[in-house]
Design goal:
This protein is mainly α and 476 residues long. The chain has one domain: Up-down Bundle (Growth Hormone, Chain: A), CATH 1.20.1250.20. The chain is built from 23 helices and no strands. The chain is globular.
Length: 476
Amino acid sequence: MTPDDLERGQRARVLTLSTIAFTLLFAVWLMLGMLAIKIKPELGLSDGQFYNLTIAAILAGSLLRFHFGIWTDRYGGRRVMTALILFTVLPTLMVSRVTSYTELLICAMLYGIAGNSFSVGIAWTAAWYPKEKQGTALGIFGAGNVGASVTKLFGPFLIAIVPAAGFFNGLVPGGWRFVPVVYAGLLVLLALAVWFLSPREDRTPARGRPFSELVAPMKHSRVWEYSLHYTVVFGAYVALSGVLPQYYFANYGADLAVQLGLSEKLVAEFDTIKNLKGEAYTAYMVANPAVKADLDYLSKWIGFLAAICFVFPASLLRPVGGWLSDRFGARVVMAAVFWGMLASGIVLSLPLALGVWGFTGALFVLGVGMGVGKASVYKMIPDHFPREVGPVGGLVGLLGALGGVLLPLAWIAIPGSTFAALLVLTLLSTAWFAADAVLSRKPALFAVIEVGESSPRTSRTLASGHPPVDLVREKN
């Protein structure tokens, strides 16, 4: 085996393991989104308390992203990813034992650390791949966002097939509590796989470099521009993934129940049922087993629609976005993303009486834009900051993910503003993007760029809207 073959094999292992790890950790990070349909009535949680849980997990998975990026560049992705996975095991398992809002909030703040796996994987993958392949590689890794759909697809199925009493006299609980137990077991296996299957001689591009040098790019406005873009395509994605099942249930549950031909009793009493909590909810379900069965079936369909029509396109199209960014340039692709998100955002924000299928179609377009856009943003980072991917990517990920906190707060403050708040944020991001294009004399929103007629170095300049960092250094 030649050295080139050996290196390709090591790259493939790093990309495979980091993507699998990110997928599972992302599923853990956002598991309350789908489980909320069962947890809220059982624990008697209000909407405000549920949003607090969502925000706690998002903050835990966001605020340390900058540090995790630096730690990965300094100590290697193998060590940092393994440590992150092992830390997440216990609080994930403890979710299956909570009996109160306070206990669940503490668990959310601890297992939410899993969200920092994004910064670890981005820095780890970028360290192993050459610049001309980073867009595609980072896009493939970023497809791990599909982890947001794992609980939506398999949670209702596991809840339905596992006995309510669990196994081994309740040692392994049943119902929704079985899901975090499964995740905890998978996390242990994943930690072993990352440690023993990834290359022992890891890459640490920041080892020995002073902290001041690593954070020097933060003075560039482009870092903050990318952070706003990432808030739109990722922070909003996280927020919607967390609340979408509940949003579907509250706004389109009765409509979907009619479409699915469920019982007239469920449809007639739907508004009453969705407001039941605690003992009243439990008593109603015991007295109406047929309605409970219909609600379980409805929950499966809500999880299916949220996953297939939003989470999947917003995740699985990320490799496509990476490839397109490698081929045509990240800024050209980002321009198309903004047009699509603005169009779908307007449709979702206006009171058009879309119905469940019209809403789902517009949501799909929004998800496509987010999936492609996430890859475009992270293609621009190594283009302009090739030696600081860890810290810059960590900061962009941190600030972008914080959008997953701000948007739910806006939705609480103004009921019904879910997509209107996102539309305003998208408009602001598009305005900055367009202004930057004009100032750099590259009107990417409207120009037709003949990439094929340019040399590779010129194409990179045109496609990004700015000269690559290496060209700037050569000029200086």
